[in-house]
Specification:
single chain, alpha/beta, Urease, subunit C, domain 1, 2 domains, four-stranded parallel beta sheet, globular
């Protein structure tokens, strides 16, 4: 950090708390290319100005300036779908398909182990990993959502907490009625919180009754709350939906009026052209989880077709139990490669598009695009810096392409959330990593026994 006493003394300049300078800045603002020899001014929790170093220093005075010599500044990443506490099941159930993975491994494990302390410790581990890989906002769908919200607040990052609505008794609720009751209480707690959004989290079409789907639609409209649901995750789910409803999950949700801008459809590996058009017509958001889809052999989301239809696509890691990492930049890379292979077109999903999926598109899906997702004046100062001095980035012709197509999570050096530096040169400032790893080792030993 470099102090700027002379700059702060000028009465002609606008005041800022601090300025960050770097060789490159990718704002992800519409129509804005990479800014070279860049700087960004932060006042309080907000971005006060973005531009070249010369422009920013001619407009702002700051008490301190941080000069990053070999970095790219980017918006904080938005992980639009996951199950944070499932980090504690990482690597437990490998090399199996979705139905076997759920029925024979994950659901029995959850029945035995999941409680509020499990969710607390697993979520802490996930948040550490997400911060260290540049994620400043995440969406979570899991049990004990009140614990997830508390951990996000403590760590200083944003979260959409989708409370589970599932017809079967589970670790958090004995019935959907209890789930609604607890979810409404959670919504009331965070009604005016600037960093926590509470959403409805029906697990899937096949795990909830039609009456409860109707209730979710009514309540979501009354509360202006989002709905996140696993939808068309694989062919077996689609077959089950046809057997139960006589139609697909997408068609069933459409018949009940749930397709709309509040709906976040996760996975969607099995879509017809008509269903894609329904998504477009109703402004449904798709959350693409390429690694989880590939690892469980669930299928491939038709991203190019969705984009061509005008559907907003964000990225999610899913849980670490079906991914093993919470690296959203890796999801962006895999999304790009899958689309190119699927379409047999090397121009499909270029680096700029998948970066948008990891940032501003995620913000749109969560209803936060006016606050986060791009580095623009007036938005929240959620920002990351990636150090591109390593040999794997050289020679550096195109910073954006290198960030997407090189393993970049480990090169995230700094993370700011609402103007607060929570990762400083790879050092966590809001969490005790040693204590978290100690609790994780305890859970590993308990589960192994």
């Amino acid at each position: 950090m470099q102090e700027n006493p002379d700059n702060s003394a000028s009465a002609d300049l606008l005041p800022a708390d601090f300025i960050v300078e770097a060789p490159w800045l990718i704002s992800v603002a519409a129509g804005t290319a990479t800014i070279e020899d860049a700087a960004i001014a932060i006042t309080g929790t907000t971005i006060a100005g973005v531009g070249t170093r010369k422009e920013i220093n001619s407009r702002f005075s700051a008490r301190r300036t941080q000069i990053l010599q070999s970095h790219v500044l980017l918006p904080g990443l938005v992980n639009a779908h996951g199950h944070a506490a499932m980090t504690l099941f990482r690597g437990y159930a490998e090399d199996t398909n979705l139905q076997t993975w759920l029925n024979e491994a994950i659901w029995p494990l959850e029945a035995k182990w999941v409680d509020d302390s499990f969710v607390r410790d697993g979520t802490r581990l996930a948040i550490v990993e997400m911060i260290r890989s540049g994620i400043t906002c995440f969406s979570d769908m899991y049990y004990y959502p009140e614990v997830v919200a508390e951990q996000a607040k403590e760590a200083g990052i944003r979260a959409q907490v989708a409370f589970p609505v599932i017809q079967f008794p589970n670790a958090w609720s004995a019935s959907t009625e209890e789930g609604f009751h607890k979810g409404f209480a959670l919504h009331d707690t965070y009604r005016n919180d600037p960093h926590i959004e509470v959403a409805f989290g029906p697990h899937s079409v096949y795990a909830i009754t039609d009456d409860d789907l109707d209730k979710i639609l009514t309540y979501s409209e009354e509360l202006d709350a989002n709905i996140q649901i696993h939808l068309h995750e694989n062919a077996a789910e689609l077959k089950e939906n046809h057997a139960r409803f006589g139609t697909s999950g997408v068609e069933h949700l459409n018949q009940r009026g749930l397709l709309g801008p509040r709906l976040q459809a996760v996975h969607t590996t099995q879509l017809t052209a008509k269903e894609i058009e329904l998504f477009a017509q109703n402004n449904v958001h798709v959350i693409h989880c390429p690694t989880s889809n590939a690892k469980l052999a669930s299928g491939v989301c038709p991203t190019s077709e969705l984009i061509e239809a005008g559907v907003n696509i964000a990225l999610g890691t899913d849980g670490a139990a079906s991914n093993n990492t919470l690296d959203l930049l890796n999801e962006a890379r895999l999304a790009s490669l899958m689309a190119k292979l699927q379409r047999q077109d090397a121009t499909a999903l270029p680096a700029r598009t998948v970066l948008e999926m990891a940032t501003i598109n995620g913000a749109r899906a969560l209803g936060l695009a006016d606050q986060i997702g791009s580095l623009e004046t007036g938005k929240a100062a959620d920002m990351i810096a990636i150090d591109v001095s390593g040999p794997e980035y050289q020679p550096l012709f195109d910073p954006l392409a290198q960030i997407i197509h090189t393993s970049s999570a480990s090169a995230v050096s700094h993370v700011w959330a609402a103007g607060d530096c929570i990762l400083d040169n790879r050092v966590l400032r809001s969490l005790d990593l040693a204590a978290i790893l100690q609790s994780v080792a305890m859970w590993r030993d308990r589960i192994k026994r």
